[in-house]
Amino acid sequence: MKPDFSRERELWAEGARFVAGVDEVGRGPLAGPVCVAALIFAADAWPIKGVDDSKKLDPARREALAPLILESALAVCIAFAPPEEIDRVNIRQATLLAMTRALAGLAVRPDFALIDGRDIPPGLACPARAVVRGDALSLSIAAASIVAKVARDQMMARLDAHYPGYGFTSHAGYGTLAHRQALTALGPCPAHRLTFKSAPAATR
Known about the structure:
This protein is an alpha/beta fold. It has a single domain (about 5-185), classed as Ribonuclease H-like superfamily/Ribonuclease H (Nucleotidyltransferase, domain 5, 2-Layer Sandwich). The protein contains 7 helices and 5 strands, in the order αββαβααββααα. The chain has helices spanning about 5-15, 60-70, 85-90, 90-105, 140-160, 170, 175-185; strands at about 20-25, 35-40, 75-80, 110-115, 130. It has a 5-stranded mixed β-sheet with strand order 3-2-1-4-5. α2 crosses α5 and α3 (about 85-90) packs across α4 (about 90-105). The longest helix is centred in the last third of the chain and has 24 residues, at about 140-160. Residues about 200-204 have low confidence and may be disordered.
């Protein structure tokens, strides 16, 4: 089953004109920020063909879809929580802070937010609902997951150029064998999360 606008339509029918989808990428890596995208589609938006949970799409497909999403959305905001903030407040709290920033940064103020996962950041300026596996259910959340993933991968490529030797472009900071070997040989760089001792290899 592909994500669709059914959850958004329920809210549109209840009078919530601007419904934001919110998703994060990068909770598990040993390095780099956690990235959150929030976006709003118009109630009469035509679904973009191929939008799905970013984990189900290969990099080329995500990179092709991201500009289409950015062009079609009424508003988009991408926010980050850097490694030093993750180390200071923990990854869950840093993710919630990045979600709050992404929603607050939208050029169109949302009437409601659909947030992937189980957590809702405190103190939001609009009502919100947590949607477990939301990137597989809500088209807005799935689109946000693609935008966040592409934005974070691009940032990791820039960090790779700034801190060569770790292979950030290839593994995006996740705990692959090659990354752990580089950490053993080189030690951590400023892009690493010093409170993360180990993490499994992953694509998200």
